[in-house]
Amino acid sequence: MVNKAWKIFPRPLLETILNNHVQHHRVPQPLFLHGPRGVGKTTLILNRLLDGWNKGPHITGYVDFGGGNNQEHTCYVPWTSWNNKCLTPPTLKSLNVQLETCLEQLVEKGISLGAIGSQQVFTTLNKWHGINTALHRIIDTRTALPVSGSRSVSKRNDKVSSSVLWSRAVFAISKEVKNEEIDEILGFNEKGKVVSIEEKSYFREAMLSLRLAKEVIEVHKKWRGNAARELNRSGGYSRSLANCFTDWPCLLLDLLSSSAELGYFQPKLVINNIEILRYATTDDTTVSAQMYHDSFLWRLIALGINERSLPVILVTSDSYYSYRVTFDFGYQEIFISRETFGWTPPEAKLHMVSDYFSESEWKVIVEVLGSNPRHISEIYTLKQSSYYDQIMQDSSGSTFEDIVDAYLAYLQVTVVNPAMDSVLFLMQKFAVDARDGKISKDRLQFGAPWRHPPRTDNPTVCLEWAKIQLMDFVHSLVNAEFGVCHSILSSIFCVHVLMPLLIWKKWAIGKGGVSMASSIVTNFGFGNKSPRGSVLQKRFQFFGWKASLRIDASLTGVRLNYFSDYSLEILDDPSATAMLEVGLLYTQRDPPYIRPISRGIERCLVRWLVHERMQMSFLQSFRYMWQRIIRGRSYRHLMKEAGYK
After folding, report:
1. CB-based burial of residue 292 (10 Å sphere; 0-12 exposed, 13-18 middle, 19+ buried)?
2. Which of 8, 211, 371, 512 is disulfide-compatible with 516, CB 3.0–4.6 A?
3. In the chain, where the domains are located
4. 510/504 Cα distance (integer angstroms)
5. For residue 406, how many other CB atoms are within 10 A of its CB?
6. Which of 152-166, 234-248, 333-347 has the lowest mean pLDDT?
7. To the nearest 10°, the Cα dihedral for 315, 318, 323, 324?
C-alpha cells in the first residue's frame, strides 16, 4: 500500500461534458471550467483529456498563464491566488506573447493542411480593418523610396484596390524571408514528405500573408501608442483602444474558426488560469490588464454568437468566473459554465481506502482536511517520504495525526498567513479609498460595520483597523459555520416582510391600476421608477437584510427576482471581497454559498484568528470587543442548510 504509485482517477461525467463540447468544429459559446483550488481541473485536462484532443483531425492549443506552455504538470503551488500580493504577477506582454504564439502555431498547422490560404487571411483582415494606409507604409518601407517622390507615389496608389496592394506587400516581404525557413516551419523538410512545387508556392504565400497581416496589426498598434499612454495617464476607458491590442489574437481565432472543417481540421483552444490575465502588470505601451481581459472575452463572445468559433475552454480557480462574470458580461447563458468541486467524501473513500490509506488514517484526513484531492495527494506524498518513517519510528509515540498536524502547519505558514497579509493590505487600501471619496455611499451606508474607516493616513492606525475588521469577519464566518448563502433571502424575512408586501401590491394593482400601486409604493420609499422601462426596483433593508425586488408593471402579476450581486450585504463587505480576491474563499454557484476552498484552509483560518486574538494588547482587545458588540457582523441568517458539507 505504501509503495503504490499515485493514480489519476477518471471523472466520467465531467470528461463526457468536455469531450462533447470539443467534438464540434464550431460552437456558439466558450466554456468555463471553474472550481476551488486543488480539485484537479488542470490534472484532468493534462493527464486525461489533452492527448485525445490531439488525435486525428483534432489539434488543441494549450496555454497555461500560471505555469508555462508545456503539457507536463508544472509543480507550482496551487493554493495561492495569482493576484496575491506575495506573488509577482507576470507582465501582460508575456501573457500576450504566450497566447499569440499558441494561436500562431495552430494557424501554421492549418496552413500546412491547406485549410488556410493567403486569400482567406486577406479577407479576414480586410473585413475588420482598413488596411490600405498600412500597406502603403509597408511597401514604401521595403522599396526605400526617396522622400521627394513618396507623396506622388502615395497619390498614385490611392486608386489601387486593396487586393492589389496586398499582393504587392506580400511580394515585398517575400524578399526578407527565406523559403527554407518557411519550409522548416511547415515541416516540408521532414523525411518521407513529398510536396509539389505548386503546393509549396501556395503554402509559402499563405505564410507570408500571415506575417504581413501581423505587421499590419503592429502598424495600427504603433499609431495608437500615444493614445494608449494618454488613456493610462487619465485612467479612462476606450473600447477601440482595447480592441486594438487584442486585434491579433482575435484575428487568429477568426481565421481558425472559419477554416475549421469537420473530420479534417478541428482546432480548439484551452486557456488555463485565465484569471491571471486580469491582474497582469502593464506599462504605458499597452492598455490595462483588466481592459485587455474584458476586450478579449467580449470579442470571443461576439465571434461565437455571430459566426460560431472554435471550441474554447477557459479553466480557472477564481470564483469571479463562477458567479460574477455572467452579470458583468450580460446574462447567465452567455457562457457555458461547468463547476467542479472534486470528490465528495464517499467518492474519495472509495478510491483511497485500502489502496493508499487505512480506515483510521482516512477518518483523520476527512475530518481535518476534507476530501480535497490536492490535500490528499500531498499527504500521500508526505507519507511516502523518509520523513514519515522517521517520525513514526520515533520513541515519543508520534502518530498519523502528528503528520496531518505538521501538514496543517505547512499550509498555515506558506499559504494562509501570506494570503491574510495580502487581505490586510487590501483592507488598508479600502480605508484609503474611503477617506479619499472613491468608495460609493451604498457600500458605506448606515449600519455597515466597515462604515467608519480611520480618517488619518497613519499606516499603524489603518493596519489596526484593517485587522479588527478582518478578525470580526472571520469570527462571523466561524459563527455561521463557514457556510454563507449569497443569493437567497432568509425565509423569515421573506415570509414576514416581503410576502405581505407582495400580496398588498398585487391587490393594489387589481383595484387601482398599476399607476396607483406604483405611486403608493414609491411614496413609502419601497420602489422607484427604473430607467429600464416598466420595472420597479428598490433595495429593501431590514436589520441588515437586503432584497432586490423587481415588479413587472404589466397585468401578468408580480414576481421576485433576487440579484445575487446586490441582494445581500456580505457581497458589499470589503473583508469578504478581499478574501475572495486572494483565493481563500470561494463563491460557488450551486448551492450558492461563500465558503473556504477546503476544510484544511478553514481550520487554518480559525488558527489565524486565535493567534491574532492572543497577540492583541489590552487596548486592542477592548477595541475588538467594541467592534464585535456594537458594530459586529452577523451572518447566521445566511447560514447553509443543515447537513450540507
Report:
1. buried
2. 512
3. 1-96+234-342, 116-223, 491-561
4. 10
5. 14
6. 152-166
7. -110
